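Figure-free illustration: sequence to structure, shown twice.
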Amino acid sequence: MRFSTILSAAVAAGPIVASAAGQMGFALGNKKSDGTCKESSDYKADFAALSKETGSKIVRVYAASDCDVAQLILPAAKSAGFQVILGIWPDTDESFEADKAAVVDNAPKFKDQVYAITVGSESLYRGNFTGPQLLSKIQDVKSAVGKGFKVGTADSWNKYADGTADAVIQSGSVDILLCNAFSYWQGQVLSNATGSFYDDIFQAFGHVQEKAGGTDKIELWVGETGWPTDGDMYQHAQPGVKEASTFYSQAVCGMVDWGFNVFFFEAFDEEWKPHAVGEDGSVADETSWGAMSADRKAKYNLKC
């Protein structure tokens, strides 16, 4: 769909149009470039770089117990004036219980720093749970952490748009939903990447608001989007610094300027990650998705 068409559709679709500038956040890994766990000093340095280069004051992490991230990042966030969305990985019983325990142990001590808690990251997309099964995990966490915390999940845009997540949306149990959308992984040419991204997000947000019964029932964020600066071409999507910078300024900053909250994937390159293979057999390199290099140097202008 052409970008101009997306703009026209968005303006016409009143329920999903926001006002004032949104928040920009960043997905943040918990490992150093060599694959070892980050320490408190690393998170402090991460926050200093993000604050300087982007002005952002919020990050999201994925598994609260892994590398003791909840225990280490929350005090650092307090010192730096940041907030954190803590993640719980429910896909195995072991990870679910460990992450839940880490959140229960640490979140009450740092209520001002915990923006929200997500249970699952693309669990529906991977087919690891049905909507009702994921809802049960979310409700378990809500009960465990008690009042005063926003709890929800993060998943791919199409799992919201196609009804897979309806049980979660309509339950009245979720406070926040994060919606991931990657034009790059859809193999889009750069000229269509912004329009494709907007189309995906508006389909998802529109469906959520319809099923939730209003625009103010569930807080919505773009949970992940981004563009790699290096690696192999994925279908028609070309990685590169120029391409990533264009997507960031047009798609990401455009969404924020429109009043929507966005998490960019990701803050820093994660050189330790192994190469993977995409669904079509193409190489899927996830080592160069950072807005900044592993040594915390901005690759392009990160101020919207």
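We now fold a second protein in the same way, so the two outputs can be compared directly.
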Amino acid sequence: MARILSIQSHVVSGYVGNRAATFPLQLLGHEVDVINTVQFSNHTGYNAVRGDRFSASHVLDLFDGLQTNGLDAYTHLLTGYMGNSDNVRAVECIAQKLKHKFPQLTFVVDPVLGDDGALYVPRELIALYRDVLCPLATLVTPNQFEAELLTNTKITSLYTAKSACDELHRIGVPNVVITSAVLDSASGDHTLHLIGSELCLESGAKHQFAIAFPRLSGYYTGTGDLFAALLLAHYATLAPQFAALGALARACELATATLAGIMQATKLHQESTLVNVASNLPRGSRPNTMVRGFELRIIPSRHLITNPTPSFQSFSI
């Protein structure tokens, strides 16, 4: 059982950030404590959002309380949405303190920068993630756009995806998962690829792999947060069982199976609402009734979390 500190966003209603991560981690048998970088009424896909962004001093003060009371015996650290450079620096401080106390700490960084060509955060965070958090990380989980920003590599093929992974290895990250990428291929944009790469820092051995899975139409939010949590949960369980490389690929197969199942359940639920879904609607213009229909069906899909059936197999690249 892992003891996890998760630092990311929180919403009152819906499933993104810590709301998407905590339940699956607990359901898979891990202890989870959370620090929220924001507390919003709902995610930003809705037409209105209320709430507060928390300062770095707030984040550090909460962690100081944990330290003071001896409640900081974590084996794993998971980070998601930071929102500003001060919070990135706060996480750097927390990661260093946890590594000092427990040198074997597994640090999973989901570098939330943006998606589909659009930044969600100030541009200065790109360099901070690359130069500050990535060298401390055990595993990073960027999407295609984020991986391109972090490595200055345009990802159009499995070859260029491997090059992006290699660049992140060069920075100091032993495990890289590009969670979803649209590649130039005969399947067009109907297929997404996950690309993973695990590097043994001692021997230099490397295993690079991919998983192909169908792309579902719709407006899903929180999928990256959910995937990072699922991946951490399975990797924490599998890593001690593998004497050599291979745990990351298996963990990705399990996490992808659950995520694909939950997204399919969400799509079916949205269709049952009979709310029309128009394509290419920008944030802020999507009807709230439609957005709510696409909230991830995590709780009704708990069987998919506890008993995933890998239907998308990894293959070496």
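Summary for the second example: The two ends are 32 Å apart (CA to CA).
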